[in-house]
Amino acid sequence: MSLGALLEPGMLVRHPQQPDWGLGQVQSNIGGKVTVNFEHAGKQVIMSDRIDLMPVFEPPKAT
Fold it and tell me: In 1-63, which residue ranges form alpha helices assigned H by DSSP?
């Protein structure tokens, strides 16, 4: 089982190959397609069998 199967809406993640995208929030996870809204890249659909998004367990920084 991939880590992507554990991602749920609302969770914070980072894309390991795209650090410039910033912090992302999972919008949905359906059939291995994870939709994430990233700070600097907007909404992206990630195939969880190809990319292991990295969960972030730290609270977001206040702006």
Answer: none
